[in-house]
Structures are given as C-alpha cells and as structure tokens.
Amino acid sequence: MPVSGEWFSPTELTFSGIHVRAKTEWVHLSIGDGAGIVGQGEITSTQLASDVAPVVARLANRLRGHRLTDDTDVMRLNGLTVENLEQDQILATAVSGLRCAIVDALSQIAQLRLVEYLRELYGRDHGDNDSIQLYANINRSMLANDDGLVDRSPASFAGMAQRAIEAGFTTLKCAPFDEVKAPFTSSGLPRDAEMGLDRIRAAKAAIGTERKLLVDCHSRFDLESALALAPELYEAGVGWYEEPVDPITFPDDLRAIRNAADLPIAGAEHGYGISLFTNLMEEEVLDVVMPDVKFCGGPVEAYLIGRELESRWAGSVSMHCPSGPLSLLASAHATAAFGNTLPLEHAVYEVDWRHEVLEPFEKIEDGYLRLPKGYGLSARLDPVAVAMRGRSWSE
Predict the structure, then answer these.
(1) 249-294, pLDDT tens digit by residue?
(2) Each residue of 304-320: pLDDT tens digit?
(3) How far is CA 45 from the centre of its chain?
(4) Which residues are CB-contacts of 33 (< 8 A; sequence separation ≥ 6)?
(5) What average pLDDT is seen over the chain?
(6) Of residues 6 and 244, more confidently modeled
(7) Is 277 helix (H, G, I), strand (E, B) or coil?
(8) Which of 268, 313, 315 is nearest to 295 (CA)?
(9) Spatial separation of the C-alpha atoms in residues 288 and 200, rounded to whole Å
(10) Are strands 241-242 and 265-267 parallel, antiparallel or unpaired?
(11) Domains, the chain, with CATH or none
C-alpha cells in the first residue's frame, strides 16, 4: 500500500549504458510520467547471456495507463508469479530493475528518501539513515581492462588489499580461484587451488589479523573439493566461505559443506524473493544470505528479506553489490532501512571516475557510504556522465 495515497503512472521508458572496462557495462532504466517524476534502476547483466532491456520494455509496456501504487504492480499487471522469477534470472533482473524504478518514483511523490519511505511503508522508526558501512570487494579492480589482463599475482592482491585498508575499510573480499573449475580429475584439494590460496595468504598478511578477509569461490568447486578447501581457508584466517558451490542449485551439497566447515558459509546472490532466502536459512544451507538488489526483487524486496531474516537470525544478511553506484545506492537505502548488522559490498577501484556517474556524486569516506539528501534514491544518473562515457537508447 502507498504511504499516503500516492500513485505513479509511467508513460516514458529509456535506457542508458556506461562502459566501465572490458566486458563490463553498467546498464540502467529510467521510467517517467511526463510530468517530472523519473524513477531509475540498474539492470547490469554481465553474468547473463541475453540483454535484459528488451524484457524490461515488454514488461513496462503493460504498465502504461495504469496508476501504480506498489512496486509489485509490475508483476500483477504482467501476470508473473514468484515461481516464474525464481526460475528465470533475466526476467528477475528486469522485474527487479522496474520495481526499483517504481519505488524510487513513489517515494519521490511522497517526498521521502527511499530509506524513510520503506520504514514508513512498514511502520518502523527511521533510525540512523545517513551512513552505511561497506566492505571492499577488491576483485573487480583486478579483472581484465580494455588493454587486456591485469596483474593477479599474490603480490597484486596484497597491494590492492593494502590500498583498501588505507582508505578505511575494515573488511575486504577477494575471488582468488581463477584457475579452478569443477569437475576435477583427482580427489581432494585441486592442485589448481594453490595459487588462489597463495593470493589469500598474501592479502591476509597485508591486512593483518584484526581485519576480515572474505573469500568468494564463484561456485568453482564441487562437494569433495569444497570440503577439502574449508580447513585451508580456516587456517588462513578467512572470514567467510562464499559459494564454493551454488546454494540454489545444490543446496544439499552446501548444507554438507556448512556442517563440516569451521567458518561461516555465505551466498545466494542470484536468488529472487523473500521465500527463497528464508528457505535457505530455515533449511540450514547458509549462515549468511546475500540478496542482490538487481536480482532479488529490488530495494523493497531486499528490505523485506533483511527485516525478516535479521529478526530471526541476527547477522544473517549482507547485501551483494559488485556493480554500479546506482545499485549500491539502492542497496544502501534498503540496508539502512532494515539495519546493517553486516556491511554492504562495494567494488572498489574499478574505475577512478565511478563517483561522477551520479549527481550528487557518490560519497564514500572511511569505509562508509554517505546517503545524500533528497527524495527517492536521493541521486540521479548524471546525463553528462552518460553522454561522455556511454550511450542512451529506447526499445
């Protein structure tokens, strides 16, 4: 239900893409009512085989002429079920982007910041809404750039980790197992994992025992190899063990890994909807779930996931966000609304002009994102930044 009877009737839809590096492009949608209200969302899809924008356009066409009072109207008016979205990530990404843009517009109309709109919507106190703790994902800064591959040696991991702690971050994450991919020809710990362990040890030595190093495995292992890796990560002082296998596809395997490991198990970045994440916790598959605002249903759904799970399992939700500043901002509003026990992911040092994509500029200080003042998301994509570094189009 709307906070104060507000509604939004979209008549315009545009897209923009900003080239970042190599194959990465931050892609956004904007929906407007022709009267000055424009809602925005990010639909970056680097891990998907197909473009999301045509799906967004098809779904948005069904919204024209309707008075939208709730972000879930995008599903209702398109006849979509939660099951449809759990099974189709392209569709889930399109719906999540539209849901983000709709609630951005509705909170502008209500003259509230998104974090305040979420709390008003569900009858909670506003609390401290201005600063959100982040952890530094150093991995994307060391992926391929436009000139080719960059240095991913253990020394490079250590250097980037040192840079992040000097900027004030107290928790870091890396994805070090480039050479590993199941299935394997031998049992036990794959030989190809040794380079990844060397990267972890180097990064951990750089940041010291008082700071956390999280490790993302990008589902590169299988049950046997993941069980063999767990004690190595524990010995190296790793803070969590993220997705050795996909928790949505192989929940039984990940439950077995969780039962055997001496460190927290995290994951489910590609999941959609509160039911899926609740089930993963109730079925003891994960210790920490990682909803991504671009896939999980947008900031309202992320807020509901955080509110429900944190009330039952304290410290169980850490939002996944390795993408652009708009999705980080939307994630920060949701995180602030449910209360950030665990920090929010931020991909550091990917490009030095990242902060210029939004107006006002993205502001990160001492490992915290400062939420800007203003209604809705409280910041807009800067059309000058899009014109300089990307493209705009309609479907």
Answers:
(1) 999 999 999 999 999 999 999 999 999 999 999 999 999 999 999 9
(2) 999 999 999 999 999 99
(3) 12
(4) 8, 9, 10, 11, 12, 105
(5) 94
(6) 244
(7) helix
(8) 268
(9) 21
(10) parallel
(11) 12-113 (3.30.390.10), 131-377 (3.20.20.120)
Cα separation, 144 vs 125, whole angstroms: 44
261 vs 241: CA distance, rounded Å: 9
Q: Which residues 6+ apart lie within 8 Å of 163 measured at CB? A: 138, 349
Q: Give phi and psi for 63, each to the nearest 5.
A: -90, -15
Beta strands 24-32 and 265-267 are: unpaired
146, 197, 203, 229, 243 from 182: Cα distances, Å: 29, 17, 25, 13, 13
Give the sheet arrangement for strand 24-32, strand by strand: 38-42, 24-32, 12-21, 390-393
113-117: list long-range contacts, CB under 8 Å, 24+ apart.
Answer: 113/333, 113/371, 113/373, 113/374, 113/375, 113/376, 113/378, 114/299, 114/330, 114/333, 114/337, 114/376, 114/377, 114/378, 115/332, 115/333, 115/334, 115/336, 115/337, 115/371, 117/3, 117/376
Q: Which tokens belong to 344?
A: 């929010």
The span from the CA of 81 to the CA of 76, in Å, is 8
pLDDT for the residue 362: 97
The amino acid that residue 320 corresponds to is H
Instruction: Label residue 315 left, alpha or beta by phi (over 0 means left) and psi (-120 to 50 means alpha).
Output: left
Please provide residue 200's backbone torsions phi and psi, each rounded to the nearest 5 degrees.
Answer: -60, -45
Question: 343 — phi, psi (to 5°)?
Answer: -70, 160
Q: Spell out the long-range contacts of 73-77 with Cβ–Cβ below 8 A and sequence spacing 24 or more.
A: 73/102, 74/98, 74/99, 74/102
Residue 257: both structure tokens together: 């890994």
Lowest average pLDDT, out of 115-129, 300-314, 381-395, goes to 115-129
CB proximity list for 366: less than 8 A, separation 6 or greater: 167, 168
Amino acid letter for position 302? A
Dihedral angle, C-alpha 316, 318, 106, 108, nearest 10 °: 130
Which distant-in-sequence residues (6+ apart) come within 8 Å of 61 by Cβ? none
pTM (predicted TM-score): 0.95
Task: Render pLDDT for 39-66 as a digit per residue (tens, 0 to 9).
Answer: 999 999 866 656 899 999 999 999 998 9
